[in-house]
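FAQ: What does the model actually see?

It sees only this:
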Amino acid sequence: MQPSRSDPPTDFHDADREAMERKIREALETLSQVRVTVMNHEQADESVLEQRVDRLVRGYSDMFALKDRLNVNIPEDVLGYVKEGRNPDEFTSQFIERVASENQFTNGKIAALTNFKQEFEAKLQEFFPEELNERQKGETSQ
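And it is asked to produce this:
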């Protein structure tokens, strides 16, 4: 069961991660507000714009201070997706599909080898019954 956003963090690192996520959400909201202010720019809006940019800079500063307390490994491929402006969930979906396909391929190989082993043992039993029985007796006495 996944913890909800309102559940308290379970350890120190979770608290830092949650703080970083909160700062990122705040920065995104501030960026949206800056965009609206710039699009509807009037002389009276300059102080509002300045306040929002200051809030954004403080948020970035807070994120920078938090970064050293986080131990998060992000695959290079995911970062590449983000740099290209693509959704990282797309990477996850493609990765899962690829792993499922490789798993199916491996299971097919295992089934083929199991079938081959059974047929091989049957042919050995058919053509070399004494030798096979001697080998099996030797294996059980060890």
